Automatic annotation (TrEMBL):
Official protein name in the record: Mini-ribonuclease 3
Active-site residues annotated for this sequence: 49
SUPFAM superfamilies xref list: RNase III domain-like
Renumbered residue ranges of the record's region Disordered: 1-20
Pfam families: Ribonuclease_3 (PF00636)
Residue span(s) of domain RNase III: 43-140
Name of the coding gene: mrnC
Gene Ontology molecular function, alphabetical: ribonuclease III activity; rRNA binding
Gene Ontology terms: cellular component: cytoplasm
Family: Belongs to the MrnC RNase family.
Organism: Paenibacillus yonginensis
Function: Involved in correct processing of both the 5' and 3' ends of 23S rRNA precursor. Processes 30S rRNA precursor transcript even in absence of ribonuclease 3 (Rnc); Rnc processes 30S rRNA into smaller rRNA precursors.
Length: 162
């Protein structure tokens, strides 16, 4: 077995098909079955939801209050559709044209259901944010993903968008 086969996460000099730019490694050795630009927006939102959840949990654990109940309450407030929609609005001016296209596709995707505690508009914008996060994750644009999420989280914490 080659070194890459034994530890595929070490090999990070992969290139994205569209741009030829270096793609960061995925967290686990399971690449998408299609190029990122061919993945449906709801599939991008599916992985984006999980990546955002990890970002929120890591953000909260970096702060002083580490009681499990407090972490859960705080995490729930960040991942609520209303908060995700606000975060998207806060980072929107920083998005590239390509990222705006992903957001538009995610916002317009028909999921077939809306959670009982979410406004339809907020839910669609939350899905758009998750699609963007999934797109950046699978595109290997992890630094860009980290920057946008970090800025959005800090703006939300400062009371932005209320």
């Amino acid at each position: 077995m080659s070194r890459e086969e034994l530890n595929p996460l070490e090999h990070s000099d992969e290139r994205t098909e569209e741009s030829g730019a270096a793609a960061g490694p995925l967290w686990f050795p399971y690449p998408a079955s299609k190029p990122v630009n061919l993945l449906p927006p709801l599939v991008l939102a599916y992985i984006g939801d999980a990546v955002f959840e990890v970002a929120v949990r890591q953000y909260l654990i970096s702060r002083p209050k580490l009681k499990p109940h407090h972490l859960h309450v705080q995490a729930t407030s960040f991942v609520a559709a209303k908060s995700q929609a606000r975060l998207l609005a806060l980072i929107d001016p920083q998005l590239t044209e390509e990222e705006h296209d992903v957001v538009r596709q995610g916002r317009n995707a028909k999921s077939g259901s809306v959670p009982k505690n979410a406004d339809v508009i907020d839910y669609r914008h939350a899905t758009a944010l998750e699609a963007l996060i999934g797109f950046l994750y699978y595109s290997g644009k992890h630094e860009r993903l980290q920057r946008l999420v970090d800025q959005g989280m800090k703006l939300l914490e400062a009371g932005g968008g209320e």
